[in-house]
């Protein structure tokens, strides 16, 4: 019986050396990483840094820049807007440039431009529509633009602009418009009202400017993303229609089932489905009605209404609109 | 054959011994290199600090709600209802007023403490005998711009306060006893060192993450570092802030409320006149009244419940028998 030790093969030797080399590399990286002092993670927080990007050389007639401006990344956006950063990050934020300008000769009368670059036009529309101010006046600058007494907001392609004046006065409002025009001249042209499938909402009876794109966790349900909603005044209250196009009919069906389960888990009671909407789900949630279904690749519905007849009527109109879109 | 077996055993033991020594050496090296304290402060002060209680004995459970559209008379009336400024500030005191100067935005937007209110509070403290009044915050944006553009800096200085901006030397490591989040974290301690009284003065605001930002969230401005990591547990951090600070007094300014698109707002249309100034020594109670201005009930705001559970105060503000003042 031969018990003498066999010598390791060449492959075994090479493998061993590779493993040892990898371990040595891990040790080296750990030492290197520990030795680096990161002032951003300790101390007073410091300035975010970064340049003003597209705003760096923006000249606006009648306005004097107050400093070179700043730039922010996903890691530093909260240094500018604190907790509201999550709204942008969830929608697909890439970068933001900010710069202040004052009326010539009047440093106390100033405005700030914040130009957000989002991942695509849908993301820009999402942050634009989610923050739309009640009572705002539509602006002619772009299809998605409005003004308030001291500010101007617009979405164009993947960009979202917030232009905010320190005072609600005519000179500054004019400055806001001129600044927005100067920025738009630099942006690529982009045809857009509400991007995507939102045009399918029935136009009749829809509240103007009410189409909102919920980027993430719509209606409190984790994973229910990219949902358009539109508001329809009804009697003394409002109906909310919702709509989303998914990759394929199976995905839409799956999300409908998940939403039904979510409502049930949160106190909803399934009810018999109205005959005019075969295949739909009707759920009563503490006195309010939720009517929703999958139609081809679309997930659609009406929610939150206490008037069942009105809920069914709007749902029927939405279903017909979808049928026309994909006969 | 026996000899061969013996040789194999010896070789095995030798190799096992070498492997054991190698592992022991690796462990010893790791132990030697391990930094149990985490990264050094790098701010000139490695030693942690304790935050004393600034609560004034005998003023517990005081709460006043003043209805008025004018801040200065509302502040005077509210303080009077709590026993007068003299109940909180006395001769020789050093008073720190922790404002919300988070953003470099104009006062009209309501995202920061109102400068008129700051100035009046400074004047009242000095009149009550304070030898020094410090106005401070660690803003989200550039501190100098925030204090100037919000109007807080000029107003505070004009009223006689020292406006202290954060700088690296003002921070010291702090650990909240029993805290889950605030551990060995940079605290804006410089302005608080040697202070006798601490007053929080915050606007009532909508907040995208926490639903509401009032006096407890205002203590976020005492933290340094990459504090935005706490946004992932916003309810937890606000309740810990409520435990971290035992203030002398807190004031929630809901004369105008930032009701939409908070905490930054931006448009005057985000504001709502709510004509209410809330003052008290129980910050949970003050914030519980304040969230009502945003259309919320205390039970709908998780951080209020967490703070109350942790013993920072009560959400049942009516149990404090608040003094209600109508100024018209």
Care to describe what's here?
- The complex is a heterodimer of chains A (327) and B (328).
- In chain A, the strands form two sheets. In chain A, strands 1, 2, 3, 4, 5, 6, 7 and 8 form an eight-stranded antiparallel β-sheet that branches. A seven-stranded antiparallel β-sheet of chain A has the order 9-10-11-15-14-13-12, sandwiched between helices.
- Mean pLDDT of chain A is 89; it is low at 37-49.
- In chain A, a hairpin with a 2-residue loop joins strand 7 and strand 8 (159-165).
- Chain A has two domains: 53-186, Protein Transport Mog1p, Chain A (3-Layer(aba) Sandwich); 196-325, Protein Transport Mog1p, Chain A, CATH 3.40.1000.
- Chain A has helices at residues 10-34, 78-81, 85-91, 121-130, 170-186, 249-265, 308-325, and strands spanning 63-65, 70-72, 93-103, 106-118, 137-138, 145-147, 151-156, 159-165, 212-214, 227-234, 237-245, 268-271, 281-285, 288-295, 298-305.
- Helices cover 30% and strands 28% of the residues of chain A.
- Chain B is an alpha/beta fold.
- In chain B, the strands form two sheets. In chain B, strands 1, 2, 3, 4, 7, 8, 9, 10 and 11 form a nine-stranded mixed β-sheet that branches. Chain B has a two-stranded antiparallel ribbon with strand order 5-6.
- The longest helix of chain B is centred in the N-terminal third of the chain and has 32 residues, at 2-33.
- Chains A and B meet through helix 2 and helix 3 of A and helix 1 of B.
